[in-house]
Records
---
Amino acid sequence: MSLSAAVPAPARVLTVAGSDSGGGAGIQADLKTMLAHGTHGMSVLTAVTAQNSLGVQGAWELPAEAVRAQYRSVVDDIGVQAVKTGMLSSAALVETVAELLAATDAPAVVDPVGVSKHGDPLLAAEALDSVRTRLLPVATVATPNLDEVAQLTGIHVEDETGMRRAAAALLDFGPRWVVVKGGHLPGDPVDLLTDGTEQHWLRAPRHDNRHTHGTGCTLASAIACRLALGQDVPTAVRGAKAYVTGAIAAGFPLGAGIGPVDHGWRSRTV
């Protein structure tokens, strides 16, 4: 028996996102998360950033044709069992990726990245309408934080009632499920997962650790991995939340600013 016949390929997950040169978020965080989940991670690069623990010093968007070529190269030959999107930066890229996702028979996890952990803008203001009308309608799961919720819906969430209102407004744009991430609210972090019928409140302890760079990318990627492995959405999101909570607890300092979560926390031996 040949080696290729004896060893089946792992589940394949594709990230469509920007690069973080500091390795804490973006494509780099996605691929680390995919490895930690036992899947084969693949990437479509949308932008290059000069980024470190202090913030984003520069960003350079790739042309839409380069993004489309990368996507088709991977999907047409290797295939995918889930896709995760992150930084798309412009209306042209949002619309290109939305078109590609619509033609792909795999669940899509959309992290509608608007700003970095340090407050640096990563999505052009004119692209917001394309996110609402083109990208969210093709999402299996959308995972906005409260800043992104405000950008997309105009709702400024201050409590769990506001999270329900925001989730309903986001579902009106067309995703099948929404995770409204409430980690910026006071108290223990709580997220709301809903499809408009079911509501799942996901609670976790708050860890006293400022090194949380990459949490949003990591959660969305972990959800995509678990969907690729055959889990249903509520199971996938719960498992992803547990993984990210552990990664936050193990986050470590790098540079002079905010360090990353530890994507390898479950297997760390040193």
---
Amino acid sequence: MVNTNSPIGFFDSGVGGTSIWKEVIAHLPKEHTIYLSDSENAPYGEKSKEQIIALCKKNTEFLLQKNCKIIVVACNTATTNAIDFLRSNYNIPFIGIEPAIKPAALNTKTKKIAILATKGTLNSALFEKTASIINKDIQVQETTGKGLVELIENGKLNSKEMTSLLSSYLKPMVANDIDSLVLGCTHYPYLIPQIKKIIGEKIQIIDSGEAVARQTQVILNKHNIANNHNNPKHIIYTNKGTSILQNLLSKCIPENLRIIKTEF
């Protein structure tokens, strides 16, 4: 039975959602967590809406079996394509993630912003609805980051291929005089050091991690299921090898973290 001591669940199409998970455990240090990394099916951004919903259903049911009290859909593509289905079919709070184009649009000085995201996110009805409310005077440059997730999932975060691919996506944005870059995929925050080398320090980089952590706390308090105990335990399940996760989290592995390879 779900109670305050039950874990917060997370899932993503691979390792990228750990960027959100890290923000949540930093903001909510007393909470237990379970993270599900569906790397075998990454990236979701190239799949159909029907395929994405089916994978989200499978992931959700895995986390429910682990007695999770709330689920963070730590994937922009999964959120924009499946969050309505999940909320309609499961009696548990879901936290979704959308590209933060609204704050970017509110703060732009050049009236030019860019978003780097997957095809699945940019083509979704939810993203189209959000983008439609942006002031028409603001130019939004949308770029599909094809290939970026695959390189991260294959341990090529700092490779020459990554630098070349990022440059091909980012340099046209800089030439267009943007002042804000929205990261529309939870894998992309791991690329921020390389992104800054290409676009410089004047362009603001915006991701959703901190906002998701704050919203998670709001929902836990609203449902009176926040944990007030110490010594939280963290488990990451992956259906691929564990080495990529271990390398990605090597500088910030919390105490009591287990990374487990399993089939789901």
